[in-house]
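Checklist before submission:
- one chain only
- standard amino acids only
- sequence pasted in full

Submission:
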Amino acid sequence: MRLIAGDYTADVDVLGAALLSLTHRGQNLVVPSGAGDPPGAFRGVVVAPWPNRVVGGRYRFAGVEHQLPINEPARGHALHGFAFDRRWAVADEAATGVVLRLDLVPQPGYPFAIQLQAAYTMTHTGLRIELVAQNTGKEPAPYGCTIHPYLTCGTPLVDHAVLHLPADTRVEVDDRLAPTGTQPVETVDCDFRAGAAIGARRIDHAFTDLTADADGVVTAQLRGPEGSGSPGGVQMTWGQWAGWVQVHTADRPEPDGDRVGLALEPMSCAPDAFNSGAGLAVLGPGDVHSAWWGLAAVG
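Returned file contents:
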């Protein structure tokens, strides 16, 4: 499904409710997704009912132990929920927008019923993505979400891009990417608050303690290097509902997919929130959770 408004064009797929492409005046703002994507890249998909990882796929909720299917076998975790590889139904479609819907039924490890609705809306100022989740079951349900675009500012590798990210704290992880604690960004060479080139940093961490503007909006930008003649790029915005953002420099074993974009994933909860409870939403029967993200070009 193609959306067009002003100088923007986007393609959206029903599989994973994925953003396949987003361009401004013909320039890519996200790494395009397609049949040749590296396996496990999750390019552009909607992620729910949990973002990031549930460590070991195990968690306890309302006094009951649950075991989720392990879909990250190398590390032994349950990764990125259930929505990313499901076909969503088209609920509404127009030239500048599409609404997709998915009913998650009770299943092993997640015996809860959640209806998801993802709305993509294009205007002359950029793309807005809204995700609404409703508990359609009879019991409270744990819930979290994000989206998974890989941003690009036209540099062949993210090494040459400049990241602006208003985050004070990085979540530290072990060699299985399980959370172990937090550190101030300036102590772990990941301070992007005033903007810094990504360089050779290999990042697959969540950041938190985010600074919002007076309207409660958090803004991150990925720009070309200063002195390049055209240091424009892409910005992502989101609300204070998302207290964490995962940053991944797309380090891949495939040469043609390695470090070609920056995954930026504003999350409603922390990694492994099903166990820690950090930011986790608990939706009672009929309760609704709303999230939104914006993507736009910057000059």
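Reviewer check: The mean pLDDT is 96.
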